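Q:
Got a chain?
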Amino acid sequence: MLLVHDIPGRLRFIAPCLKGNRQQLAALGKRVRVLNNVTAASVNPITGSLIIHYDSDAAVRARILQHIRAEHEALERTPAAARFQEAPAGHIRAATDFVADALANWLVERVVQCAVSALT
């Protein structure tokens, strides 16, 4: 996990190996939320990110970083196959449908533009 943003009271990490793995990120967020002085923790499986809000105290920050370091080490010991989770088929189908609709709309617009140009 990489610390990508650090301001007093807020830390943001990304974990590329957890990108798309909703279950493991949710479990990580749950483990972080119970730490003392953590006020909130949110995860985003699309980006593989973890945002932690905490009481802005250097000692609290140090404890959180220590905990994240331990989480990272545990993750490194986990076989890659267990860390990776494919996107559900429904998400893939929705993304494919979205791209197909956008392409069809673009194609129709282009045909109409060419037809109008030919008539004028």
In short: Confidence is low (pLDDT under 50) at residues 81-87. The radius of gyration is 22 Å. The longest helix spans residues 89-119. The chain has two domains: 2-83, 87-120.
